[in-house]
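#data-curation
PF: Archiving a pair of folding outputs for the training set. Convention for this channel: one message per protein, sequence first, structure tokens after, nothing in between. First:
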Amino acid sequence: MTALPISRELSVEERMTENPSPARTGQGAHSPSTGHRATAPESRPCPPSDETLVCRVLAGEARWYEELIARYERAIVNFIYRMIGDYEQSLDLAQEVFYKAYRSLDRFDPSYRFSTWIYRIASNRSIDFLRRQSPVLISLDDQGDRDRGGEGAFQLRSAARGPEDLVAARELGHRIAQAIDALPPFYRELILLRHTQDLAYEEIARLKNLPLGTVKNRLFRAREILRKRLEA
């Protein structure tokens, strides 16, 4: 895979926040001298939009793709890091995301925002990575279910300590992973985002561009499907 210019030298602070703007030096803070006309600030051309850059890349000016990477590199790395919790791995996945986006650029619809498109690719790649990790035990207990008058907590975590209990917990984790994998994709992704990555409903709604009520309803249905399969 062709290497893309993803920086691997971001500090911890840079991973979580943008660099603050440099302090002003004070030059130009004094009022202009009496009798002299103030010089009007030079007008700077507006930078091209993301969609304009995409059109330029598709027209054969591939160098403009580096500008798109520069605009979204830190944000995409931080987003993936938030999803998977491994910074070094998030750098590698970000590389894959930008590479896949470049290869699929001819399928991008310029009537939509490039940022939404690239974040969707990053989300799908992160979910795919999480699904390939070792099965983990999660809790499907959710306050929203209790508010709906559901049966209450449905705990899948095990407080086991002995060898037999650990074997049982491992088997349960395998069953949970199979049940999640068998969910329809739109349910499976929401379950992972909510219960593996602990994203708030509002964060999921923004990420998936869905109404908040739709996110809550789908998660409720997904948990009900999992309950029935695991209790069968």
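PF: Second:
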Amino acid sequence: MGTMDPLINELKNRARIYIHIYRELSKELGPEKATGTLKSALYARGREKGLQLAGRIGKPDLRALALAFVENKENMDAFGHEIVLENPAYVVLRLNQCPLVEAWKEASLSSEERKTMCDIAYQVDFGKFEAAGYRLSFTRRIADGCGSCDLRVTL
């Protein structure tokens, strides 16, 4: 077993949990409300993480954020974090793989279902970056069939 296998397995487990929660909530509330409820919950968790990030790096600073993005990832990086571009106006951060999307493929979710799960799951990222004082957009997503997730972050 590789050093990242337990981490990847846990991330895949989380992805499978998202499927089950989404399906159960969809039965009770309908798909639209289920999606909205899960997005809100994950965004809230992301905000908790973002406040921790802000406490660690201080006032919004794109360079400090980029360094925090790749910090301590050498041996335990299930997502393949990378800094693609840094300039004074924005940074582009990349995730080169996604165990969540892999798990959704393994669970035989359709392309559209994988996109929906990603729309839900990546709310944690929006909550995290926004709570820390940044604006986030995704210019590419693995769930959309791209080779990476590219995060464009501005102040």
